C-alpha cells in the first residue's frame, strides 16, 4: 500500500506515540476529522473511548503499511 504524505505523517505520529496513543483532539489540530476516521476505517488505527476522550493507537496493519510504503520507494 502506498500512502499519501498526509496519511504517512499521521501514521508516523501514531507510531511515535506508542501504547498510550494520541487523543483524537490532538490529531484534529493537524488533520481533518474525516481523514482520521478514514485511518480507523482502513484498519490502520484504532480508536478507543477513555472517559470523555478518544485515543487513537497504531495497529499492526499500520506498522506494515509504513514499512511497506518505505520499501515501495526503494
- What distance lies between the first and last C-alpha atoms, to the nearest angstrom? 14 Å
What share of the residues lie within helices?
A: 40-55%
Number of domains: 1
- Number of helices, where a helix is a run of at least 4 consecutive DSSP H or I residues: 4
Q: How many β strands by DSSP?
A: 3
Mean pLDDT: 83
Outline the biggest β-sheet: 3 strands, antiparallel
CA radius of gyration: 12 Å
Topology:
Layout: H1 5-17, E1 22-23, H2 24-28, H3 33-41, E2 45-50, E3 53-58, H4 60-72
Antiparallel strand pairs: 1-3, 2-3
Structure description:
- This protein has a three-stranded antiparallel β-sheet with strand order 1-3-2.
- It is an alpha+beta fold and 74 residues long.
- It is 54% helix and 19% strand.
- 24% of the residues are buried.
- The chain is built from four helices and three strands; from the N terminus they run αβααββα.
- The longest helix is centred in the N-terminal third of the chain and has 13 residues, at 5-17.
- The protein has a single domain (5-72), classed as Winged helix-like DNA-binding domain superfamily/Winged helix DNA-binding domain (Arc Repressor Mutant, subunit A).
Defining traits:
Arc Repressor Mutant, subunit A; three-stranded antiparallel beta sheet; 19% strand; 4 helices; 3 strands; 74 residues; alpha+beta
Please outline what is shown here.
This protein is of the alpha+beta class.
Amino acid at each position: 500500500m502506498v500512502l499519501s504524505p498526509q496519511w504517512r505523517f499521521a501514521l508516523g505520529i501514531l507510531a511515535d506515540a506508542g501504547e498510550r496513543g494520541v487523543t483524537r483532539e490532538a490529531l484534529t489540530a493537524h488533520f481533518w476529522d474525516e481523514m482520521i476516521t478514514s485511518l480507523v476505517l482502513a484498519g490502520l488505527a484504532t480508536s478507543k473511548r477513555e472517559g470523555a476522550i478518544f485515543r487513537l493507537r497504531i495497529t499492526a496493519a499500520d506498522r506494515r503499511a509504513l514499512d511497506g510504503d518505505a520499501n515501495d520507494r526503494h
